[in-house]
Amino acid sequence: MTSLTLYSPAGVLAKAAPLKLAARRLTALGFEVQIDAAALARHQRFAGDDDTRLAALHRVATQAPGIALAARGGYGLTRLLDRIDWKLIARSIERGTHWVGQSDLTALQLGLLAQAGLGAGAITWAGPLACEDFGRSIDAGGVDEVTRDCFLEAMSGALEAVGFRTEAGFDGLEVRGTLWGGNLCMVNSLLGTKHLPRIKGGVLFLEDVNEHPYRIERNLLQLHQAGVLDAQKAIALGEFSAWRKSPLDRGYTLKTVVQHLRSVTRTPILTGLPFGHVPTKVTMPVGARVTLLVQQRDVLIGWDHRHADGGQRDHRHDHVHEHAAPG
Amino acid sequence: MTSLTLYSPAGVLAKAAPLKLAARRLTALGFEVQIDAAALARHQRFAGDDDTRLAALHRVATQAPGIALAARGGYGLTRLLDRIDWKLIARSIERGTHWVGQSDLTALQLGLLAQAGLGAGAITWAGPLACEDFGRSIDAGGVDEVTRDCFLEAMSGALEAVGFRTEAGFDGLEVRGTLWGGNLCMVNSLLGTKHLPRIKGGVLFLEDVNEHPYRIERNLLQLHQAGVLDAQKAIALGEFSAWRKSPLDRGYTLKTVVQHLRSVTRTPILTGLPFGHVPTKVTMPVGARVTLLVQQRDVLIGWDHRHADGGQRDHRHDHVHEHAAPG
Asked: Which value does ipTM take for this structure?
């Protein structure tokens, strides 16, 4: 039975119910679920003060459960970045821990990639959050089946690729590189700091929520002006959700942003990745080497699960598998 | 009579009336006002497409009026940064042009400082925008007198300092350095790119609008993690206006942000600068060498107007004065 710890590295949980519902559902899915002692801590808008959240992060890393699933995002990792024991996190991954999350967790995932360097100890998982995805009430739609199944299969090692439909015009594209990215605002919040990994020839995926297209464009142009976009082999855009139109837009939309970006960088920009602040999202290995293939309008991002599971050192394969199989 | 050109480098003007009202009022104040041919151009949310706005910027620089006052901010300069002829802008300043604005204009002001280097040709003016400050209807409060007078005196060369009240605890502080900064989001949007000036030992001023304190904190922490805050001699915070509380804040406020920042950097952080997206704002020379003095709770940021007016080369004093005196 795979152990799974729920912990809170960022925003406060307004209520305990979603976390408890998530714990029950994950238990029913076959995980041995533990809720970290400080998961419900409260300090202003944070799930405990900085020391509390940092201690929780390090405690989970020391315990090294099969899966470390963040309760929610919000805001909080930025305050911890300069204090995180990256080697401790990397060691937990080498011992088999799958760190899963998105949104504010992007800072943890990319900070690790920047500090621990590419390799088995720096692979984490862009995927669901406990409260938002497994704690969603039945009235609000319950657990998304695609999100759940993709998470389960990625954790067990059965999943080796995610697929989606994109726009016409990329038929035949085939690239290999490091998969990285996450929440666009969070990626940009690392620019100019030592916490941004310097990935060349990678596959960069991005999503965001509550951001008007002009802000999405400004962030993407900053990545371009910083040399990041041109240095990638492909860019996969996820969902940019929950923004509100302005009377000043006059026809300026997300499509305008993508068109403009395509006019400034030659790196292929694919849309349609099912990832972001939406119910249906894939789970993918951040920091792993992937192949991105396009056939007509079908995109496949594939990885070798032995590599994604920290198996770049061969003797570790079995050990990792043992920890990674749920149920 | 000082010539003053109104032009639109960024967001579209929803209506022509505020610009025309601003032109009438600035004429009444003694300026010879010209409205750039493309000031009312429209392309989606922009005041004309990129080529139109870039041409306007270069046209104004070539004409080199006494004052180049932006109609409004919004979003748009980010798209132009890689294409601006910085030497042309710098030459206009050496010929006597005062480039004035704030908000999105921060990108122009700091980009110039980064590309043209410190010196007489890189000094611009953080101050009012035409529509927002001189085009405000009587019903909405009309023109703010402090903003108007400070602008007039700064343009004429009569103003050599701005003063404000800050919190207790900084009595006796005295630093000298380059004044720079502007809109926090825009400063951060330059991080990691060649358009961020590398100012050491400076006086950094910052403001923002519509940004929740946690986003202000995230941006300030990014500046810290990028080494920018520690490299300054002082930081002056202006107004952070028009943000909305969240039920998740639980006591987390702008004060929390300032306290947290003071716990991570030893650079003095002064609050109370009258600058931002508010009616009352000072006009100050970006890129000029200033002295910041604190006596009890009174702060004075002073500059030598001969230097701020491009007079670092002595033979230029008279020439500049001639152009800079309004009326």
From this structure: 0.93
* Top-level class of domain A3-143: alpha beta
Q: What element of type H or E holds B55?
A: helix B50-63
CB A40 within 8 A of CB A22: no
Q: Quick check: A51 and A23 in contact, CB under 8 A?
A: no
> What is the per-residue pLDDT across B6-58, written as a single tens digit (0 to 9) for each?
999 999 999 999 999 999 999 999 999 999 999 999 999 999 999 999 999 99
Which of A11, A44, A218 comes nearest B75 by C-beta? Answer: A218
- Tell me the domain boundaries of chain B: 3-143, 159-323
Neighbours of B92 (CB within 10 A): 21
Whether residues A249 and B196 touch (CB distance < 8 A) is answered with no
Burial of A137 (0-12, 13-18, 19+ CB in 10 A): exposed
Size of interface A-B (CB pairs under 8 A): 101
Measured over the CA atoms of residue A52, residue A54, residue A55 and residue A57, the dihedral's sign is positive
Backbone angles phi, psi at B270, to 5 degrees: -100, 135
Q: How far apart are CA A293 and CA A296, in angstroms?
A: 10
| Residue (of A101, A242, A256) closest to A183 by Cα position | A101
- A48-88 per-position pLDDT tens digit: 999 999 999 999 999 999 999 999 999 999 999 999 999 99
A120 token code pair: 């088995």
Radius of gyration from C-alpha coordinates of chain B: 19
Tokens of B246: 């969240």
Among A59, A282, A316, smallest CA distance to A161 is for A282
State the Cα torsion B108-B114-B116-B121 to the nearest 10°.
60
Q: How far apart are CA A187 and CA A210, in angstroms?
A: 16
Which residue in A has a C-alpha nearest to residue B252's C-alpha? A44
CA distance A250 to chain B (A): 5
Does A159-323 carry CATH code 3.50.30.60? yes
Calculate how close chain B gets to A74, using CA atoms only, in Å: 10
Q: Where are the beta strands (DSSP E) in B148-192?
A: 161-165, 174-183
Q: Please report where in the chains the tokens 């990545």 appear, as a residue.
A: A223
| Location of structure tokens 């459960």 | A65
B207, B211, B217, B239: the catalytic one is B207
